[in-house]
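PROTEIN DESIGN WORKSHEET
SECTION A - STRUCTURE
LENGTH: 258
TOKENS:
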């Protein structure tokens, strides 16, 4: 299983997607296809933490880093997701340095943070006999990625990226396009300008930025990837499980009628 340290270190390109289908088979197929990580989406998918925990197990079998998008920037959710074994937390709709710092604190045990401590959770092998070693491993190998997806978040991006302990930024092109009034047009000039500002801020702070590219059509996806590559982006979230699977169904069905 890819660790968060491996996911964030170096400049080699890594690819992931968003998982909204609670299917172990799909997760295993992602790993088999060469994906490096996925974001288990507890904000928009219909499942909760119990299902997400099972998906984390499937990610381990598939060799995928299991990032978990919590439904809100909530201390309890963040701690429980890490207890369940998530590799990292994607905190949604981060709009300020204070919000980013609160998410980081929720992923850290006291006195550095506010995460509740329990020695018998899944991430502690259900009953750790060496709490100091477990605590050190959690601090070193797990953490928070801030999802920035609003105009306010873009306006505060430099301060967000400077928050101590924040591991990375995840750009949110679709939400940003809606928030800016461009109704899903992720290639609108204003949206791209905001995303480019995120890239520059993350680079200046020395933290990675993960860029989603939702286009299912390969030529469009590759053009977008190439544009972000030129700006130094090397971590990509391509499609979603639903987008990629439905696109294949659609293309296959159309081909049958030709």
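SECTION B - SEQUENCE
RESIDUE ASSIGNMENT:
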């Amino acid at each position: 299983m890819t660790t968060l340290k491996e996911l964030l270190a170096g400049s080699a390109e890594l690819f992931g997607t968003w998982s909204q289908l609670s299917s172990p088979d799909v997760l295993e197929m992602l790993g088999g296809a060469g994906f490096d990580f996925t974001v288990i989406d507890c904000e928009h998918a219909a499942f909760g933490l119990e299902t997400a925990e099972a998906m984390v197990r499937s990610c381990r079998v598939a060799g995928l880093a299991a990032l978990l998008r919590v439904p809100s920037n909530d201390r309890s959710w963040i701690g429980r997701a890490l207890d369940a074994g998530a590799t990292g937390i994607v905190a949604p709709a981060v709009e300020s340095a204070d919000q980013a710092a609160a998410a980081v604190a929720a992923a850290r045990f006291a006195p550095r943070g506010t995460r509740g401590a329990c020695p018998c959770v899944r991430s502690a092998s259900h009953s750790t006999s060496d709490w100091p070693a477990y605590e050190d491993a959690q601090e070193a190998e797990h953490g928070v990625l801030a999802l920035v997806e609003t105009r306010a978040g873009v306006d505060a991006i430099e301060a967000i990226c400077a928050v101590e302990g924040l591991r990375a930024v995840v750009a949110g092109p679709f939400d940003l396009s809606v928030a800016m009034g461009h109704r899903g047009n992720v290639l609108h000039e204003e949206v791209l300008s905001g995303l480019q500002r995120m890239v520059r801020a993350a680079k200046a702070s020395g933290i990675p930025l993960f860029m989603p590219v939702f286009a299912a059509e390969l030529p469009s996806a590759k053009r977008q990837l190439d544009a972000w590559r030129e700006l130094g982006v090397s971590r990509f979230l391509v499609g979603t499980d639903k987008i990629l699977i439905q696109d294949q169904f659609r293309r296959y069905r159309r081909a049958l009628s030709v």
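SECTION C - NOTES
The two ends are 42 Å apart (CA to CA).
The first strand starts at residue 14 and ends at 19.
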